[in-house]
Amino acid sequence: MSTRKILNLSLLVIAILAVWVLRGPFASMMHWFSNPQAVTEAIQQSGFWGPTILFVLFVLQVFFAFIPGQALMVASGYIYGFTGGMLITWISLVIGGQAAFWLARHSGRRFAEKWISPAVLDRWDKNAGGQGIGFFAITLVLPLFPNDAMCYVAGLGKITSRCFLIANILGRGLASFITVLIGAYGSRIPVAVWVSMAVLIGLGLVCWQIARNRKSQLLTA
Fold it and tell me: What pLDDT score was predicted for residue 75?
C-alpha cells in the first residue's frame, strides 16, 4: 500500500473517531440551530462579536444545509435593525456565494457533490444551461429555487465570474432586503412596501422572460 493511501486511510479513521467522540456536541449544535429564538439570544449576548458570528454563520450556511439561512436573516434585522442587518446579511451572503461559485468552478463537480446532492445538481444543470445574470439573480431570491445550490450550479456552468458576481449582488441584495425588513419591522411594514416589492419581483420575472425569448429567437434565426 502506498504512503498516500495509508495517509488517506488514517485521516478517514481519525475523522470517523472524531465524529463519534463529538456526537453529543454535534447533536446539541443541530438542536440549537433548529431553535431561531436560541440563536437570536446567543448572538445578542455576544456583544461586539455578534456581527462577526453572523458573518461566519452566513458564509457557512452556503456549505452546511442544517444552518437556517432564512432564520439568520430575520434575526439579523431584529438584532441590528434594517440598515445594520442589511449590510451584514448582504455582504456575508455575497461572499459565501462567490466562495461556493469559485470552489465549484476550480474543483469541479466532485467537490460540489460533497455539499449538494447529485440529483439537485443534475436537475438545475439542465435548467440553468445557457442562462445569464437575470436567471441566476432570480434563483437567489425566490424560495422556489435552491438558492445556495445555484451558486454551485453557476460555478459548474458557463456563466462568467463577473456575470455571476453581478447576479449574486442583485439576487442576494433583494433577498436580504425582504427578509431583513421582516426581521426589523415585523408586522409594521407598510402595505405600500409589500406592493412595491411584489412589483419589482414581477418586473424582474417579466424582463428575464423577455430576454430569454429574445435569446432563443437569435439562436434559431
Answer: 86
Are 153 and 124 contacting, i.e. CB atoms less than 8 angstroms apart? yes
The cell numbers describing 51, all together, are 456581527
CA pair distance 217, 221, nearest whole angstrom: 6
Specify the pTM: 0.71
Of 133, 203, 137, the residue nearest 175 (C-alpha): 137
Q: Are residues 58 and 126 in the same domain?
A: yes
3 plus 44 within the same structural domain: no
Do 75 and 45 form a contact (C-beta atoms < 8 A)? no
53 and 18 fall within a common domain: no
Confidence of residue 150 (pLDDT cuts 50, 70, 90): very high
Q: Judge if 97 and 185 occupy the same domain.
A: yes
Higher pLDDT, 219 or 181: 181
Domain extent for 154: 36-220
Pair 46, 28 in one domain: no
| One-character DSSP codes across 70-129 | HHHHHHHHHHHHHHHHHHHHHHHHHHHHHHHHHHHHHH-HHHHTTTS-HHHHHHHHHHHT
Dihedral sign, CA of 146, 152, 153, 159?
positive
- State whether 120 and 159 are in the same domain: yes
| Euclidean distance between CA atoms 169 and 91, whole angstroms | 9
